[in-house]
Amino acid sequence: MREERGVAIVVADTGRGIPDEQRERVFDAFFTTRAEQGGTGLGLAVVRSLAVEHGGHVTLESAVGRGTRISVWLPGAPVEVST
């Protein structure tokens, strides 16, 4: 989605959702609940780190049994106006 001063990238699913006790840790490096499936716990930590490094932010919305929505907002590049 293009926004007035940047862009939002939204990824949503209708999966199992994230319980409250895990939600606080999902952006921690190496935190995973899916080690058996090969999860390393780096995905969201890297996404947030890159977004913040570029002046953006990441938000998470989740409901157990209903799914999760991750939004990454990044600012747009300044536009030079020539006169």
CATH architecture: 2-Layer Sandwich
Note the main sheet: 4 strands, antiparallel
In CATH, the homologous superfamily goes by the name Histidine kinase-like ATPase, C-terminal domain
Q: In sequence order, what are the helices and strands, one letter per element? A: EEHHEE
Explain what you see.
The protein has one domain: Histidine kinase-like ATPase, C-terminal domain (Heat Shock Protein 90). The protein is elongated and about 60 Å long. The protein is built from two helices and four strands. A four-stranded antiparallel β-sheet has the order 1-2-4-3, with helices on one face. By secondary structure, the chain is of the alpha+beta class. 18% of the residues lie in helices and 30% in strands. It has helices spanning 20-23, 43-53; strands at 2-3, 6-12, 57-63, 67-75.
Secondary structure blueprint with pairings:
Blueprint (H helix, E strand, L loop, with lengths): L1 E2 L2 E7 L7 H4 L19 H11 L3 E7 L3 E9 L8
Antiparallel strand pairs: 1-2, 2-4, 3-4
Keywords summarizing the entry:
83 residues, 2 helices, 30% strand
Task: Kindly summarize this structure in a few lines.
The chain is of the alpha+beta class and 83 residues long. Helix content is 18%, strand content 30%.
